[in-house]
């Protein structure tokens, strides 16, 4: 059972949170994590680069100078690659769909292991609340200093906002617009190496990129239900 330290917005330790369940039992599968991250990076590419060949360049086809008598190498037209503004040889072209599919179970397993690994290394902390009356960067800076996180790459996670609706006599929780973390997220967006996201919007790449994860207790429960439920 992992134990996480809990802090308030002043950076003072106010308690501990015990984490039970799949995070303790998460087993490493380096190949699964590698395949997941490679797929994420591949799917982030746009594949939209497009260069024109000599057949696509709109240019005069007039011979630049006469064939003989100039002492220069013969040239047919100025759309050839050796001329400025001419066609590109073997340049990038838009490709077919390069999307790499990642199964839901594999995605959940990879994220679960990455978070569990940070928990074992002491890089996950709990923040008591993100409620602020107004945006104030100084509060976040003092929190990072007091909790010894300044200078490192930190990812703050907050819980989402869900409403229960009935669809075909079945109750389903849907994610609606969340504004409760708005002032807090504005307070840290000018800080380098510091970002904020909702718990269910994170990916394994976000977890790997951050040195520390700082989340609310509600966000931790949300992640547990999402990954382990």
Explain what this protein looks like in three dimensions:
This protein has 229 residues and is of the alpha/beta class. It has two domains: 2-46 and 100-228, Ribosomal Protein L4, Chain: A; 48-94, no CATH class. It is 31% helix and 20% strand. The protein is built from seven helices and eight strands. The protein has helices at residues 22-25, 30-43, 104-120, 137-146, 182-188, 204-209, 217-228; strands at 2-7, 13-19, 124-127, 154-158, 161-167, 170-176, 194-198, 212-216. The strands form two sheets. A six-stranded mixed β-sheet has the order 2-1-3-8-4-7. A two-stranded antiparallel ribbon has the order 5-6. A hairpin with a 5-residue loop joins strand 1 (2-7) and strand 2. Helix 4 (137-146) packs across helix 5 (182-188). It is elongated.
Question: What's the short version?
Answer:
The chain has 229 residues and is α/β, with parallel strands linked by helices.
């Amino acid at each position: 059972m992992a134990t996480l330290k809990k802090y308030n917005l002043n950076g003072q330790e106010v308690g501990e949170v015990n984490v039970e369940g799949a995070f303790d039992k998460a087993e490493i599968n380096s190949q699964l994590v590698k395949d997941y991250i490679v797929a994420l990076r591949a799917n982030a590419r746009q594949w939209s680069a497009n260069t024109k060949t000599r057949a696509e360049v709109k240019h005069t086809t007039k011979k630049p100078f006469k064939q003989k008598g100039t002492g220069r190498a013969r040239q047919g037209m100025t759309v050839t690659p050796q001329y400025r503004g001419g066609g590109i040889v073997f340049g990038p072209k838009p490709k077919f769909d390069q999307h790499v599919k990642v199964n839901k179970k594999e995605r959940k397993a990879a994220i679960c292991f990455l978070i569990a690994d940070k928990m074992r290394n002491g890089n996950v902390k709990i923040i008591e609340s993100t409620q602020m009356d107004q945006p104030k960067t100084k509060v976040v800076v003092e929190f990072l200093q007091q909790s010894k996180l300044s200078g490192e790459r930190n990812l703050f996670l907050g819980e989402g906002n869900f409403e229960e609706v009935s669809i075909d006599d079945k109750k389903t929780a849907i994610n609606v617009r969340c504004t409760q973390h708005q002032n807090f997220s504005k307070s840290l967006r000018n800080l380098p190496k510091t970002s904020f996201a909702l718990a269910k919007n994170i990916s394994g790449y976000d977890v790997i990129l951050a040195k520390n994860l700082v989340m609310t207790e509600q966000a931790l429960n949300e992640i547990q239900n999402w990954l382990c439920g």
